[in-house]
Amino acid sequence: MTLRHSPSEERLLAYAAGTLSAPEAVVVATHLAMRPDTARWVDRLQHVGGQVLEELEPSAMAGDALNQTLARIEVDAGEAISPAPLNDMPELPEPLRRLPLGKWRWAGPGVEVRHIEAPRDGATRLILLRIAPGQSTPRHSHEGSELTCVISGAYATDEVRYEAGDFEEADEDVLHQPRVVSAEPCLCVAALDGEIQLNGWMRVFQPFVKL
């Protein structure tokens, strides 16, 4: 299956299996909320996975499994977990609407970043990135992976244009400089593993660039 500007099949399989890190899963879920056709494909993967589980040979349960289950029910009985309140950005897709957000801060000319206060996985964290029309990020590579989903606006790299709902995967082998090509600011959500690595003379600013 070939999906243009969508997560790789390997990453979608990992998402369907529940093995992605929490920050990466949020970015993939955002893409799926904006691309129902891809979401339907993932639903089919999960359905097939459920059928496989049903066909597995049953295994014996622990002798005290029933007592453990009853004990948990007794402890949890009567507790109700209220949904987290909506954040202050109604334009965000549903997977992001109830995640707490930090303050916007300056990250370069025409570039603002806002941390998403969601569970981290090691060095992997979530951010919102807002870039003004005509502006670009510094040319950079990555310590690890970078997953990005465009929420609004559009940006382009040397060869590819990414618009609302599009998904980009980058790693330490990718050197790029996204520039905004839309008339409106480009708003993205990204899961970053490690720090970005500036290229060329921009490396002198590396100690000051923290996303």
Please outline what is shown here.
With 211 residues, this protein is α+β, with helices and mostly antiparallel strands.
- Average pLDDT, rounded to a whole number, is 78
Number of strands: 11
Fraction in helix = 25-40%
Give the strand order of the largest sheet, numbering strands 1, 2, ... along the chain. 1-2-3-10-5-8
Radius of gyration: 20 Å
Please identify the structural class as seen in this structure.
Answer: alpha+beta
Poorly predicted ranges (pLDDT <50, ≥5 residues)?
49-56, 200-209
Written as H for each helix and E for each strand, in order along the chain, the element string is: HHHHEEEEEEEEEEE
Given the structure, what is the number of helices? 4
Q: What is the makeup of the main sheet?
A: 6 strands, antiparallel
Choose one word for the global shape: globular
Distance between the termini: 33 Å
